[in-house]
Write a structure and sequence with these properties.
Radius of gyration: 23 Å
Strand order of the largest sheet: 3-9-8-7-6-4-5
Shape: globular
Number of helices: 15
Largest sheet: 7 strands, mixed
Bound molecules: pyridoxal-5'-phosphate
Structural class: alpha/beta
Distance between the termini: 52 Å
Order of helices and strands: HEEHHHEHEHEHEHEHEEHHHHEEHEEEH
Low-confidence stretches: 403-412
Number of strands: 14
């Protein structure tokens, strides 16, 4: 029978503690969400600024839907490109300090578009090993020589750049903030290597845009890099901006090339105009409400201080080095990560257990994400719950260990 391996494959995944299940939310996204029969403090969304259910975004979307309807009706090149789309692109170009910006329906498609359009046979694409799956997929599908360098290791990148010096074009690609680790790419060093080896640097700033930098411009603003140093900047609306969709910002030539040639731009329906309107409203809040970024940074500091204190007396998990809203606790084993996540949920805290293949084997983790919508009390509450579940796990293991000793004692 065709495809009768599916059931077997699924069973295997269950046994490896890698089975994934969706939770059904019964409320809007926010610091507290409602699950089936439970209200939980939410520490696993990417709604870093607390904008996903903001009344101003909702209002903008409702107004635009009243005027423009729901569907955009066509792709951008046919007749789906509305005044609101265009206005959003102009606002983005200005926010990023770049000549142009181009909207995409999702970040996944934006990454496919850029990499497949910029490189192909005879070129080389060099990617950080921990890049987002969409960047990896795009690199593999591009037809260019695909090289991965050790995470954030500039010597490893340089070796690969050197080896690809005969390629017609070299494109270096990295996440600005790594989505499962929360650490930043060493952009100034990567930009220097790009210049030295005549390569272009592309940054996917899905987790930095809106959060990092004085004005929320993301990691390029944080590091003070310009368009010559990072010619291709990509970011999304689905995370800190609380909306949906993505964009690429760069030179006029880059944007026109994408409009002319990018298949995942050309052959797909434009975002609903009302979604673009909500994104535009979010950009406005980014500018006017700097307190969101500041409060988030404050929560990050508070979380890390308390977590470091907790883990110094209870070194059962490891706090990863991150100064961003993504604060992962390295657990190692997938089953253990899942059990800890479930124990936290029983206490009313929603924290994601991230397991392979999303992260490398043996590095399962609790991915805690903070939001400007959280209060200090909610963060403190999470740490109390974390201390409890880690202690409980510890005493459980000791009990198992004692049982084992007793079995040994009555043994031969
Ligand atoms: C979420 C994410 C994407 C995909 O963006 P979507 O708009 O959700 O498709 C791309 N890159 C990174 C680093 C991401 O975290």
């Amino acid at each position: 029978m065709a495809f009768n391996h599916l059931a077997e494959q699924l069973q295997e995944r269950r046994q490896q503690q890698l089975y994934r299940q969706r939770r059904e939310l019964k409320s809007a996204q926010g610091p507290v969400v409602e699950l089936n029969r439970q209200r939980c403090v939410n520490f696993c969304s990417n709604d870093y600024l607390g904008l996903a259910a903001h009344p101003k975004l909702v209002q903008a979307m409702q107004n635009a839907a009243a005027e423009f309807g729901v569907g955009s009706g066509a792709s951008h090149l046919v007749c789906g490109h509305s005044r609101i789309h265009h206005q959003l692109e102009e606002a983005l170009a200005e926010q990023c300090g770049r000549p142009r910006a181009l909207l995409f329906s999702t970040g996944y498609m934006a990454n496919l578009a850029v990499i497949q359009t910029l490189v192909g046979k005879g070129d080389a694409v060099l990617e950080d090993k921990l890049n987002h799956a969409s960047l990896i997929d795009a690199g593999l599908a591009s037809g260019a020589r695909f090289q991965r360098f050790v995470h954030n290791d500039m010597a490893s990148l340089e070796t690969r750049l050197h080896a690809q010096s005969a390629a017609a074009n070299r494109l270096i690609v990295a996440d600005g903030v790594f989505s499962m680790d929360g650490d930043l790419a060493p952009l100034p060093a990567a930009a220097a290597l790009a210049r030295q080896y005549d390569a272009w640097l592309m940054i996917d700033d899905a987790h930095g845009f809106g959060v990092l930098g004085e004005n929320g411009g993301g990691c390029v603003e944080h590091f003070g890099l310009d368009i010559d140093e990072v010619p291709v900047l990509m970011a999304t609306f689905g995370k800190a901006l609380g909306g949906f969709g993505a964009f690429v910002a760069g030179s006029d030539d880059l944007i026109e090339t994408l409009i002319q040639h990018a298949r995942s731009y050309i052959y797909t329906t434009a975002l609903p105009p009302a979604v673009a309107a909500a994104n535009l409203a979010a950009l406005g809040l980014l500018e006017r409400e700097a307190w969101r970024r500041q409060h988030l940074q404050q929560l990050v500091r508070r979380f890390r201080q308390s977590a470091e204190a907790l883990l110094s007396v209870c070194p059962r998990v490891q706090l990863m080095p991150s100064m961003t809203a993504i604060q992962p606790l390295l657990v190692g084993d997938s089953g253990r990560a899942l059990a800890l996540s479930e124990a936290l949920q029983q206490r009313g805290y929603l924290v994601g257990a991230i397991r392979p293949p999303t992260v490398p084997a043996g590095t399962a983790r609790l991915r805690i994400t903070l939001s400007a919508a959280h209060s200090e009390e909610q963060v403190d509450g999470l740490l109390v719950a974390l201390a409890e579940v880690l202690n409980e796990e510890g005493s459980h293991e000791e009990a198992v260990h004692e049982d084992a000793v007793r079995v040994d004692e009555v043994g031969p």
